[in-house]
C-alpha cells in the first residue's frame, strides 16, 4: 500500500482523489486539521443559546422554528433520515469513495464545526472499505448534494446501507464487520455532513482526469488513422500553429507531429497529387485543441472546489462567528461539468468521422471496404462504425446543459438551484461513450494500417498499433468486437494506453 494521503483541507490534488477513489490509497487527517476542527467545535458549542441556523433551528423553510438544546442531537439525526430519500441506481464505487474523501477534507478545513471523531469515523469507513449505498438521483445541487450526502452519512449512525467486501449490509452491521461502532450526532453535525458539493466535485474530479486522458488518446487515434489514410504531416507543423497560438491547439499539433516521426508511409506519398486532407484529419489540432482549452477551465474550477468550504452555516474561526451564506450552491461545478461533457463529446464526434473515412472505400485511398478481406461474406468494421455513430448521437443529447435549468425547492426558500448533479451524471455517461468511440477508432486504425505493409507508420503510431494488437487480434474474419472495444476503452480510462506509447516516444503534451 502506498503512503497515506494527508488531509489538511487545503492542498488535496486531483491525482490524490484518483489514487484514493480508483487506486485504493488510504488517507489520514493531519494534526493541524484536528486542531482546527476542535477549535471550530468549541465555537459552535459556545453559541448554543443563540438563534443559529442548523444548530438550534429547523432547516430550509423551517428556519424560523426554534429547537430546544436537549433535542439538538435528535434534530441532526432526523435531518439525515429525512434527506436520505434519493432514488435510482447507486453512484459508481469510485464516485462514492471520492465523495467520502472530499467530505472528510472539507471537515478538515475547520469551517464545519463537526467533531474530530465524526470525521475520523468517516475516514475509517473509507480506509476499511465500508462503501455507503448512495442512490444517484435526488440532488438539485443547491444546498450542495443533500440527498446523496445524507445517504453517505447514515451508516455513521448505524442506519442506511453500505457494501463491505461485496456484501450489502445495513449500516450497523457494516460498521461491525470492520470493527467500528456508530456515533451519536451532536448539534450541527448532521448539517455538516450533508451540506456540501462533494458528489458534484467527485464526478468533476474523476471526470477531469478521464477527460485529460481522452484528449491525449484522441491525438494517438488521429495519428494512427492519418497513417492508414495516407494523410499529410505538414498541417501539424509548429509554424502553422504558432500563427494561431491557442495552447490546446499547439499541444495537440505537437503531439500528432511527434507521433508521426519517422513514418515510411508518409514518406512514400510525400509527392503525391493530393493537396489537402479532410477536416477530420487536417483540422484535428484545432478541434482537439479547443476541447483541451475547455478542460483547462474545468480543471481550474475543480482544483479550487477540492479544497473549498461549502458548508452552511460556515464557522469562521478568526472572526469568532457563524455565518449563513451560499457556498454550497453548485453553479460553478454545474457549469464545469456541462463544459466537460461538451468538450469530450466533440472528441468522439471528429473521431467517428475518421472511422467513416477508414471504412468507406470511396474515402479511404484504396483500403478494402470495411477493412476486411472477402467483403460480403465478412462485414468487417461496418457495424463498429454504426456503434460509434450511435454513441456520438447519444452524446449530442447528453451535451445539452443541465446547468441552465432551475426548479425552486423548499417552499421557495431555495428558489434557484444548479442541477449540478444531473450535469455530473450526464458527463459520466458522455465520458463512457467517448472512451468507447475512441476505442473503435483505435481498432479500425490498427486494422487499416496493416493493409499498407510493408511500409511502417511513425514511431508513435507504431507504438499505438502495437498496444492495440496486444489487446485485440487482427480481424481476419467476422467475430464479435464488443469485448475488444470494452478492453481498449478500459485502457483509455486507466491511462495505460497513453502510458505505453509515452514509454516508447517520451511524454506527450
Describe the structure.
The chain has helices at residues 14-21, 31-46, 72-83, 93-108, 116-128, 146-153, 171-177, 189-194, 198-228, 238-242, 247-259, 264-268, 279-282, 284-305, 331-359, 382-398, 420-449, 459-471, 482-494, 496-505, and strands at residues 5-7, 27-29, 87-90, 130-132, 135-137, 161-164, 167-170, 314-316, 321-323. It is mainly α and 509 residues long. The protein has 2 domains: 5-196, Fumarase C, Chain B, domain 1 (Orthogonal Bundle), CATH 1.10.275; 203-308 and 336-505, Up-down Bundle (Fumarase C, Chain A, domain 2), CATH 1.20.200. Strand 1, helix 1 (14-21) and strand 2 form a beta-alpha-beta unit. The chain is elongated.
Would you state the CATH class of the largest domain?
Mainly Alpha
Poorly predicted ranges (pLDDT <50, ≥5 residues)? none
* N- and C-termini, Cα separation: 30 Å
Read across the widest sheet, the strand sequence of neighbours is 4-6-7
Helix content: 40-55%
At CATH's second level, what is the architecture of the largest domain? Up-down Bundle
Q: What overall form do the CA principal axes indicate?
A: elongated
Cα radius of gyration in angstroms = 26 Å
CATH homologous superfamily descriptor of the largest domain: Fumarase/aspartase (Central domain)
**Averaged pLDDT, please?**
94
Amino acid at each position: 500500500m502506498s503512503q497515506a494521503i494527508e488531509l489538511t483541507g487545503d492542498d488535496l490534488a486531483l491525482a490524490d482523489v484518483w489514487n484514493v477513489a480508483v487506486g485504493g490509497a488510504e488517507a489520514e487527517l493531519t494534526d493541524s486539521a484536528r486542531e482546527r476542527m476542535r477549535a471550530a467545535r468549541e465555537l459552535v458549542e459556545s453559541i448554543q443559546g443563540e438563534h443559529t441556523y442548523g444548530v438550534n433551528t429547523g432547516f430550509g423553510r423551517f428556519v424560523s422554528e426554534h429547537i430546544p438544546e436537549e433535542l439538538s442531537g435528535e434534530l441532526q439525526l432526523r435531518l439525515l433520515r429525512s434527506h436520505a430519500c434519493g432514488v435510482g441506481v447507486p453512484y459508481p464505487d469510485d464516485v462514492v469513495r471520492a465523495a467520502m474523501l472530499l467530505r472528510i477534507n472539507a471537515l478538515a478545513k475547520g469551517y464545519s464545526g463537526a467533531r474530530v471523531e465524526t470525521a475520523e469515523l468517516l475516514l475509517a469507513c473509507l480506509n476499511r472499505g465500508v462503501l455507503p449505498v448512495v442512490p444517484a438521483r435526488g440532488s438539485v445541487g443547491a444546498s450542495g448534494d443533500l440527498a446523496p450526502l445524507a445517504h453517505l452519512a447514515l451508516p455513521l449512525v448505524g442506519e442506511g446501507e453500505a457494501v463491505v467486501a461485496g456484501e450489502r449490509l445495513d449500516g450497523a452491521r457494516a460498521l461491525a464487520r470492520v470493527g467500528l461502532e456508530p456515533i451519536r450526532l451532536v448539534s450541527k453535525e448532521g448539517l455538516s455532513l450533508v451540506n456540501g458539493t462533494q458528489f458534484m466535485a467527485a464526478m468533476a474530479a474523476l471526470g477531469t482526469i478521464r477527460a485529460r486522458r481522452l484528449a491525449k488518446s484522441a491525438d494517438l487515434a488521429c495519428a494512427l488513422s492519418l497513417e492508414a489514410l495516407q494523410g499529410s504531416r505538414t498541417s501539424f507543423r509548429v509554424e502553422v500553429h504558432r500563427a494561431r497560438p491557442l495552447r490546446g491547439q499547439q499541444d495537440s499539433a505537437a503531439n500528432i507531429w511527434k507521433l508521426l516521426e519517422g513514418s515510411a508511409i508518409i514518406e512514400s506519398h510525400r509527392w503525391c497529387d493530393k493537396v489537402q486532407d479532410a477536416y477530420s484529419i487536417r483540422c484535428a489540432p484545432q478541434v482537439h485543441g479547443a476541447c483541451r482549452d475547455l478542460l483547462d477551465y474545468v480543471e481550474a474550477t475543480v482544483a479550487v472546489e477540492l479544497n473549498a468550504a461549502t458548508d452552511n452555516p460556515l464557522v469562521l474561526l478568526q472572526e469568532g462567528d457563524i455565518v449563513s451564506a451560499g457556498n454550497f450552491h453548485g453553479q460553478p461545478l454545474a457549469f464545469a461539468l456541462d463544459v466537460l461533457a461538451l468538450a469530450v463529446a466533440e472528441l468522439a464526434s471528429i473521431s467517428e468521422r475518421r472511422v467513416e473515412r477508414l471504412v468507406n472505400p470511396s474515402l479511404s485511398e484504396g483500403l478494402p471496404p470495411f477493412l476486411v478481406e472477402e467483403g460480403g461474406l465478412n462485414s468487417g468494421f461496418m457495424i463498429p462504425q454504426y456503434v460509434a455513430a450511435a454513441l456520438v448521437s447519444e452524446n449530442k443529447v447528453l451535451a445539452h446543459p443541465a446547468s441552465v435549468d432551475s426548479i425552486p425547492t423548499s417552499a421557495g426558500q431555495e428558489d434557484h438551484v444548479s442541477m449540478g448533479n444531473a450535469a455530473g451524471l450526464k458527463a459520466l455517461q458522455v465520458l463512457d461513450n467517448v472512451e468507447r468511440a475512441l476505442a473503435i477508432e483505435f481498432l479500425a486504425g490498427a486494422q487499416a494500417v496493416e493493409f499498407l505493409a510493408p511500409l511502417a507508420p511513425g514511431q508513435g503510431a507504431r507504438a499505438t498499433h502495437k498496444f492495440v494488437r496486444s489487446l485485440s487480434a487482427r480481424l481476419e474474419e467476422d467475430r464479435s468486437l464488443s469485448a475488444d472495444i470494452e478492453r481498449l476503452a478500459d485502457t483509455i480510462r486507466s491511462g495505460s494506453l497513453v502510458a505505453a506509447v509515452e514509454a516508447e516516444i517520451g511524454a506527450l503534451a
